[in-house]
Design a protein that fits this description.
By secondary structure, the protein is α/β, with parallel strands linked by helices. It is built from 15 helices and ten strands. Helix 3 runs antiparallel to helix 6.
Length: 389
Amino acid sequence: MYSPQSMGTVFVGVYATSWINKKMGKWIGEKNAADLLSQSVDNNVTSEMGLELLDVADVVRLYPDVMNYLEHAKDGTFFEDLDKLEGGNSVSKSIQAYLKKYGIRCPGEIDITRPRFNEKPTALITMLISDIKNFEPGAHKAIFERGLMETKQMEQDIIKRIEKLPNGKRRAKKTKEMISRLRNFIGYREYPKYLMMGYYWVIKQALIREAVQLMQKGIIREKEDIYYLTFEELREVVRTKRLDYSIIMRRKEEYKIYEKLTPPRIMTSEGEIISGEYDTAKIPKGALAGIPASSGIIEGRARVILKMEDADLEEGDILVTAYTDPSWTPVFVSIKGLVTKVGGMMTHGSVIAREYGLPAVVGVENATKLIKDGQRIRVNGTDGYVEIL
């Protein structure tokens, strides 16, 4: 996770992206060329998570009883109830195989207290239903191959145009090398976080085992109470078997207040708040400015969604949300564009948007308030702005 060689490997892909975008813009006027060239790369553990849920959907769609059950499934008895249905065993095996690989993830996963997919498999249901509704069987392979074909065509077109320039052969050879590096290494950028979540899951299970014992002894009322203690406090409670429960009560009330706060866009480690404004001189009047994260222009219905489990999407929808992390990736297969309130060029949502070929603008201030659910919008992922139509 933390070795210099591993981090260096991440930055090979980042450097190749930067080189391609800079040189292609300068040599042939091709803006953000690396975006299209990043589609359907091998060995990206995050984008594979979205595509492999399509395979699970292909199993689910075969069994009407299972589809009806998913509408009211409960986490506590999820697999037990599933096994009683026709086809339930097949679906159960498919979902459990998926969770073995991706169950360590969840929305807001950097917070160890958030329920993982392993703990809350029902969080996947809305996405499974959307996949069944929006795609034909075998969509995983079709989407990947379409992206691969578009990338190959883009590469051939770029190389032909470069070869016509002065020193064209030399430039074309260097460009091919950089495209190869981009496609070999850009997916690795997703692995350190994936490994980190694997460690988190091991640690969380150990903490919850302690919490259950404390609950059984009547020291805490529910296992989630330990989330309101520091690690040192928890260790002391485990050691002494004593706790002033008013601490938990007070912190729960404080947390309700903290949840309502709006953090600043940028805050330094010293607590300094830095503010600024986008230069809007080169975008249409009234457009919402942001960071161009994935090239292309798309129009569609805005779906303002703040919780992943509410992501009931139709083909052609554009996702508008506060932020995305790797757990949102299965939602990406059902959308045509992405707008987020926070994010940057190399945040997970931007990387996956490029790999899926989705126009994306991130860092759009107050996006989830200024854009209303159901409005028709135009996302310009090339120049970095959103228009409300």
